[in-house]
Amino acid sequence: GENVEQHPSTLSVQEGDSAVIKCTYSDSASNYFPWYKQELGKGPQLIIDIRSNVGEKKDQRIAVTLNKTAKHFSLHITETQPEDSAVYFCAASFGGYQKVTFGTGTKLQVIP
Amino acid sequence: SAVISQKPSRDICQRGTSLTIQCQVDSQVTMMFWYRQQPGQSLTLIATANQGSEATYESGFVIDKFPISRPNLTFSTLTVSNMSPEDSSIYLCSVEGGSGTYEQYFGPGTRLTVT
Fold this sequence. Notes:
The complex is a heterodimer. In chain A, strand 6 (56-59) and strand 7 (62-67) form a beta hairpin. The model of chain A has no long low-confidence stretch (mean pLDDT 94). In chain A, the strands form 2 sheets. In chain A, strands 2, 4, 5, 9, 10 and 11 form a 6-stranded mixed beta sheet that branches. Chain A has a 5-stranded antiparallel beta sheet with strand order 1-3-8-7-6, with no helix packed on it. Chain A is built from no helices and 11 strands. Chain A is an all-beta fold. Chain B is 0% helix and 51% strand. Chain B has strands spanning 4-7, 10-13, 19-25, 31-37, 43-50, 56-57, 68-72, 75-80, 89-96, 104-106, 110-114. In chain B, the strands form 2 sheets. In chain B, strands 2, 4, 5, 6, 9, 10 and 11 form a 7-stranded mixed beta sheet that branches. The chains are: A mainly beta, B mainly beta. At the A-B interface, strand 4, strand 5 and strand 10 of A face strand 5 and strand 10 of B.
């Protein structure tokens, strides 16, 4: 089955700096890669996603890049703010009504 | 995106008892999913629930321990049976975003502590 590795497990940045979280996946058949933000005491919130036919996607301060050949994808957050502090999960699936496999999570702390 | 609610939001239960968690969605969805998130850990899929058919369980999860109902297109329940402290986790339901989409949206979770 699919295996998703995520790094780093914790990340501290100064407010205004950029944060990058990296993931790798094992199954070349995976074609959908969502990113979730989970704040303390809440369920995961979908913040951005990318399909395998796209190399990069951006939404305001967040962007995701995908390298299908290397089976890598990354989340980039620019101009970080304290409210970006949360646990971020990457994930991979075959798309459609298919099982989503999650990475191990990255706890991001933005220091004011 | 769908609005998903779960009941209860949290509970403390005695070893050996069972708890049923409810998941309600504000729109009709084909697929509903149940996940477990152990303290400080990632999410693990327990089972996929389609309306009108038996739930499909992932490796390591069995129907006798986690029976699931899916009586209609907006509602599902997950029961955690014969609980032990190892069942202490957050239980989350999620739904697919709709026909032609790949997204999954999550409910707020049920925080279960077994003593």
